[in-house]
Structures are given as structure tokens and as C-alpha cells.
Amino acid sequence: MASVTSLSDSVQQHLASALTATRPEAAGADPLLRRSDRADYQANGILALAKKAKANPRELAAEVVARITTGDLIKDVEVSGPGFLNITVADRAITENLAARYADGERLGVPLKADAGTTVVDYAQPNVAKEMHVGHLRSAVIGDALRSMLDFTGEKTIGRHHIGDWGTQFGMLIQYLFEHPGELAPADEVDGEQAMSNLNRVYKASRALFDADEEFKERARRRVVALQSGDKETLELWQQFVDESKVYFYSVFEKLDMEIRDEEIVGESAYNEGMPETARLLEEMGVAVRSEGALVVFFDDIRGKDDQPVPLIVQKADGGFGYAASDLTAIRNRVSDLHATTLLYVVDVRQSLHFKMVFETARRAGWLNDDVTAHNMGYGTVLGADGKPFKTREGETVRLEDLLDEAVQRAAEVVREKARDLTEEEIQERAAQVGIGAVKYADLSTSPSRDYKFDLDQMVSLNGDTSVYLQYAYARIQSILRKAGEVRPAAHPELELHEAERALGLHLDAFGDTVFEAAAEYAPHKLTAYLYQLASLYTSFYDKCPVLKAETPEQVANRLFLCDVTARTLHRGMALLGIRTPERL
């Protein structure tokens, strides 16, 4: 791998040297470089330096300009406004930097960070014996993208799918089936989807009985104790639920075009044996105290009605353990056994208070510290067209499979309408890539903490900020490269660039910086914004700069080179988001 210094970093270093030469006390000062509409880059750090040095900003800026050498990197620099520096990069520098990225292959010259750690990403957490619904979409899509982005920067990531496979609901479900043995067909007589549909139906029936019959509720609670105690008959039925659910989970995630590794499915049950020790340690350290028979943790800044403290319940008065105990035990495991330096949780924003209390408890216990941090990546809700949580017309939660199937169906209509030389089989293949990509992109292009409306018509539109627009830009480039025949892309740094070529080249060079920023901030929407702008700049370039009919053979090769770098960047960026880029559309 050959890492390439971005143009912005090179300019930044050049400016920093000029600043230091002008004012030695400015050594290490940040020129605060940013992209500008008036020039390629604008430096505005001189204002702060001038204030510190009690100097006139414009005069200081002029002194710095006098020490900047123009040529291979910087074409021109001028003082603007109260003391800004407007910097124009040389055409040769743009082309040469892109050529170095092009030569590096799939990584495009993007370096690996030097201080990489290990991040455990907790995402895609379905529940055993329940069908996945629209509420499971964001955790899976956001978590998968963040993990890819972190991996690309050099971070080691470990996935954890903390599936709901333990607790009261399983005592309820198992007891119901012991009392209604004919309710479930044998697993070998139905497929995975039907098995899950049957389990889901039985779960609803058991819940209804649990809520209506106090005697059944008591029997279900005793069954929970049997489960936690390792009763053989109870465990066998529980294991059947888990196995059937996993088959179903895999089928849904495959439809979502996501890889889920079996060893990374570590549900609540995995921490059952460690929860008593977690409780003991917290009590011995004085982090948790007994209150009304329960083991709890109090917080000065978390209060409820009547200004009463809201505790985190580690162990219930009856001796049972809840979510807090399993989450705290999971933290212990991830820190001590997996050697995590960062714990990233991609969970519903409505669980923010729970995780705030869990993380603070772990910090008090010393399991989280300056070397090990935890972050709750709370995400918003998927809304329907009415702006309310997405539901079916009957008011039911939308099944995730139905949602994905409809997206693929809608995409097939779009692909079929535009298809010129695709067979029906190819149309269906592209429809899956376009439809699933559209769903993912709509999710990822929204800031994770915000809600967003699920609008399939907009998602599969060829116009606007959609994955389909990006996929068609990529397919258009592949078509141009095919039409070029034996004429191969080649960089020609000696050529003067058109304004549209410069804008495209500078943006292409910023890919690595964008990925690093988006990964560090857990903000995949910053990468989608970059890719949309890239496709838009390519469209402008394509409209203004003939490629195959350029004036000279060198210009044809250079513009094919710009096309190919754009395609590779789109492909890599979309792949980090978990979205396919078809060669033909």
C-alpha cells in the first residue's frame, strides 16, 4: 500500500512552514485550512495569530504570502478580506496526486491510521422468536456501515449482535408451549420464514395470556427460574427457538446484503453466568447498594417525578437480573477478554438514558476509563409519510422483509424502464442491488440521531440525493470506459485542466480525509454527502468536458483517467456503506 498525502495536508504543511518562518512563535499553529468558493482553499488561522501577536492581520498575511513559494504545489495565493489567504493549487499537483492514488488500487492512497485500536460494535440486535420489523433496520444498516468505515481506516472491529434471547418472555413462551403442545409444527416440516411466523404467532398468544391470567403469569415466572437454573427440558425448547430464529435472521440479513457471522451473535444468555459476579463486584466496591431488596445504582443528576432519584436496577428484589446486569457483564467481557479500546453501541435513541446509567456505572467500577471509552450511537425513528412511526394500514409494525421486498419491486420498475440491453434475469439482479441500496442510502444519508420518512418513490428516484443517482453515475462511467475500447486511461500532468476537471479532481483527492472524519465522528451521512457531491461534480464535468471526443489523444486519456478515478472512488465509497455499484444499468 502506498499512502498519498492529500493536497489539503500538503498545502497545510506548506503554510505552516511559512507561518513559522514569519513568526517563530507560531510554530505548531494551525492555518485552519478549508475549502472555499473563491479559491481551492482558504486559510483563516492568521486572524487568531495576529490577535495573539497584536499585529495587523492583513500585514501579517502579506508577510506570510511573501514566504510562500509558488510552483509545483501552489499556483497562486492572495490576501483576501481582513487577513484570509486564498490559495489556488497547481493543475500538475492535482493530476499527479490523483495518479498516485490511481496507482495504489482499491485503497486509493488512503493511509491507515497509526493509533488504531479495537472497537466492539454492538449492532443489529433482533429478538429470538420474533419477526424482524422496520425498527430493526437502522441498527443493522448504520452499524454495518460504521464497521466498514472503521475497518478501512485501520481500526480492528469486532461485531456483537446482542440478540434478545433471555428473560421473562422466554419463560412465558416456553410455558405456553408446554401447556399447548400442538401449537408449533415440527421445525423440519416448515421453512425458516414459516417457522418464524409460527413462533411469532405463538409469542403473541402467550403474551396475551400472560397479561390476562395471573396464574399463568406465575407459572411463566417459575419457568424463567427453571431456564436460568439450566433445567434440561426447558433449555432444549429454548435452544430450538434460538436455532430457528438464527436461520430466519440470516435470511433477512442476506436480503439486506449484510454478512452476519455466527460467532458474533452473542445474546443476553451468553452473560447469564457472569451476572452474579457483576452484581457482587459492584456491591463490594460500593458502586451499587441495596434498596428495598434490590441492588441498584443511584445518580445525582438523574431524577424522575417529585425529584426522586431514578436508579439503575442491577438485580431485582426477587434475585432476577435484567438488562443492566447483562449490559454491564458484556462490558466486562468486551474490555477484559476482547481487549476493546472503544465500545460502540448502535441502539435506539430511546435507550439513551439506560446506556448513560450503564456507562457511568462501568466508569465508577473502573471498567471504563481513559483507555477504554463507550459511545452510544443513538438513532432516530423511521417514519411513515404521515410523519408518525411507520406502520401498516392496520396499525401493525411493518415487517422488515415486506419492506425490502417492496423496495426491490419498486426498483425493478425503474431499472426496467431505463434498461436497454439487460435480460429479465439481469433486471431482477440489478433491482435487488438498486432497491436494497436505496433503502440503505436513505437511512445513512440522514444524521443517525434524526428521524426520517420512509418514501420509496423518492428513494428509487434517478434525481436528487439517492443511491440510484450514484449508481447510474458509476454505470455511465463504465459505459464510457467500454466505448473507449483500446484507448486506456492515463494521467497527463502537463495538461492544463478545465475548471470542471479541477473541481472534480480536488474533490476526489478529499476522499480519504472524508472517510476518516466520518469514521471518527460516527457520521456515515458525511460520506454519503461527499459521494453525492462527487456524482454531481462528475455530471458537471461530463457535460462540460468531452471525453472520447476531446481535442487531443492526451486529453482523451487524461479525461478517461479522471472518469476511472471517479468510478473507483464511487465504488469504494458505496462499498463502505454496504451498497453495490452495478457495471450496467
From TrEMBL:
Residues 470-585 form the DALR anticodon binding domain. Its main location: cytoplasm. The keyword Iron-sulfur does not apply. It comes from the Bacteria. It is found in: Cytoplasm. Keywords: Aminoacyl-tRNA synthetase, ATP-binding, Cytoplasm, Ligase, Nucleotide-binding, Protein biosynthesis. A motif ('HIGH' region) lies at residues 126-136. It catalyses: tRNA(Arg) + L-arginine + ATP = L-arginyl-tRNA(Arg) + AMP + diphosphate. Its EC number is 6.1.1.19. Pfam families: Arg_tRNA_synt_N, DALR_1, tRNA-synt_1d. One of its GO terms (molecular function) is arginine-tRNA ligase activity. Residues 9-89 form the Arginyl tRNA synthetase N-terminal domain. Belongs to the class-I aminoacyl-tRNA synthetase family. This is Arginine--tRNA ligase. It comes from Streptomyces rochei (Streptomyces parvullus). The lineage of its organism: Bacteria, Bacillati, Actinomycetota, Actinomycetes, Kitasatosporales.
